[in-house]
């Protein structure tokens, strides 16, 4: 029992029994090969260890491995073991998994036993695990979760948080495109949704506004994920203080400066602050449940930035702590489960994507990753090659993404939003008849008949056989009073597609009215 700090070992008796999770795994057939390094009192997020050597990140040796479960992630990434265990309150498994390029799973809060685990923050603590192989990740989960057998369910709702991927310093479009293609291939396009998570959280988690005056990087920024991370850190500091401040004051241990500065801040936390954190947690749980339902998955980045360079001073700052956990705070505060999946490299650093399910959706999430993993890796590799093949192709891919967002907005009857996305697609690739024709459909819904006619005409110029463009121009011309021209459009649509009932009915109706 050393808790990442030699003074803890010096002042505590060795553990008298094995933790429940280790016992369960050994009884399930696993072999325990050793213990791994953690951050000081498992409180850090960078992986730096001031008392012992910081584990070397096998995926990026000049970069930090991430914490608090740094050694466990490194052991899997270095192929020393098939899987390893770690603890995760604010990102202790997910961040090192992202930094080291391995799979990392944080279960729903309360689903895996904490017996025999030294608490850091009881309302956030979970026991998670790392693996390179999704089948092993899943097998470990089945042992630890101890849930009854159930038929595997496919997701019926996959929500991609577009605004989160746009914040990345790595190629977010490449990652979200790989997920989109994999989901379409396996489950169909109809289950995909694109969401602005910032706007969603602002509307569904109003208590975040209680921390809106906080500053990050010296600036006042009301990003909902940053505010959420701030609340998570405040709650963790408060509960860590309750658990360990008495020992810190009595033993006066040599502590990592991160802990010392965080404890100073913990002394200033008020009961009102903690009440606000609890309100945010309740609202977050409801928000995630409403967004995902039983068979839904939220797709987000795991981390906002690549791992810091070894020895970087930034890792001591509160800004870094907040930024590192901005996305992981979603599952931490809602109590949901999350899996980090590696999807290649960018600038010699691993990049990853995370999938989040509501609390209790652990088996569903592990099963889904098992199903998606191979296709996701294939699509990520294709996206990398596409990105490397030139800017023109990249623009075409971005245009397709914008079109899909427009289609989603159109389906949700958000006509103006759809027009915006189709316009973005046209700016990126002005040679697609589909983009103009789709924008014409949205303009028709808005009653913008002149714009609809112009877009339809442009679509026809680009593709003389675009039936939908003729139908939409005919409709626009009818509404503008150009009946003869409208009849011609409907008739031409029938020439291209003789069985088209809409064209036939419209042409017949207008001929009767205007013979």
From TrEMBL:
InterPro entries: Amidase_dom, AS_sf, TPR-like_helical_dom_sf, TPR_2, TPR_rpt. Residues 11-366 form the Amidase domain. The keyword Membrane does not apply. Pfam families: Amidase, TPR_2. SMART domains: TPR (SM00028). Residues 1-20 are annotated as: Disordered. Keywords: Repeat, TPR repeat. The keyword Disulfide bond does not apply. TPR repeats lie at residues 467-500. Gene3D superfamilies: Amidase signature (AS) domain, Tetratricopeptide repeat domain. Coiled coil: none annotated. It comes from the Eukaryota. Transmembrane segments: none annotated. This is Amidase domain-containing protein. The lineage of its organism: Eukaryota, Viridiplantae, Streptophyta, Embryophyta, Tracheophyta.
